[in-house]
Amino acid sequence: MNVIKCSIFIILSVAITGCLEKQTNKKIQSLKKNNSPEVIEKTAISESSKEQITEKKKNEENKLEALNNIIQLNGAPNFYHEDTTYNLKKYWQKIDSTTFWNIKKAAVNNIDTSFLIQPINNILTIPTDIGNISYTTKPLNEYSYEHEEYNYTGYYKRFQAHVVSKSFAEGFGYDLILTSTGKKISLAGFPYLSNDNKLIVTCRIDEENMVLGTIQIYSSNPLKESIMWGGWSDYKLLPTEAVWESDNTILFMADHYPSEEDYFAERNVITTYGRLTIKNH
């Protein structure tokens, strides 16, 4: 009888000891899992990888969206109604500053400013092969709101055209005057000519009813409809300068402001860069 009791006691002791060991091992494994430097490091790497994957996916989506919104040269929108179809943010692909400036430095605009035509008695005379083209400046006075001012900017050698800047009481712009024909192309801003001489892009910022930045694309053929496309943005993306990367891609520099108040106060500006892609023309 004593032998039987002893055997039962031994069996129970072994069973209890086994249970305690299992519980202890579980606790140890839990502590190791939660506190191991290796596990912590792996978790940090995992979270970092997730962030990198998310950022990469976001960049790819932005590029895809920009490619899906390739510019169609089918006319100009009404910027002042803020048509979202032509918001620049839908079309641009963000690039780094190095990409922009490398292309900018290599670009050849060939605008000769060594000889500037001066106005005489408020009349600016531009010579062409078919005769002179004249502009008459009208000074602003206290009794009249009319004001027109014209200045010679230079000569576009590659395009063989004179560049004239225009300033009005409520606006500004530029004219390109072809030397051979005397034909005139009116533009909203300074002309940047494409590498194949077929297109012109301009950047402009207006401040009349709201701060509005625009990019417009024109045909360089004065016999065709001048403006072929335009895009706009608010103070968050105000184009200031452009350059042609290829015959179908435009790089531009823009100012970003947190608000209109920051724009007018000239504070907190961030310079950013973008690319626009045009459908083969």
Question: What is the count of distinct domains?
Answer: 2
Return the average pLDDT rounded to an integer: 80
- Quickly give the structural class: alpha+beta
Biggest sheet: strand arrangement:
2-5-6-7-8
Radius of gyration: 34 Å
Strand content: 25-35%
Total helical elements: 5
Order of helices and strands: HHHEHEEEEEEEEEEEEEHE
User: Major sheet, described briefly?
Assistant: 5 strands, antiparallel
Helix content: 25-40%
Shape label: globular
Q: Which residues form runs of ≥5 with pLDDT under 50?
A: 1-17
What does this structure look like?
By secondary structure, the chain is of the alpha+beta class. It folds into two domains: 2-63; 69-277, no CATH class. Helices cover 31% and strands 34% of the residues. The protein contains five helices and 15 strands. The chain has helices at 2-35, 37-68, 88-91, 97-106, 260-265; strands at 93-95, 111-112, 123-128, 131-136, 148-156, 161-168, 171-178, 184-187, 192-193, 199-206, 212-219, 227-233, 238-246, 249-256, 270-277. Strands 2-5-6-7-8 form a five-stranded antiparallel β-sheet, with no helix packed on it. The radius of gyration is 34 Å and the shape is globular.
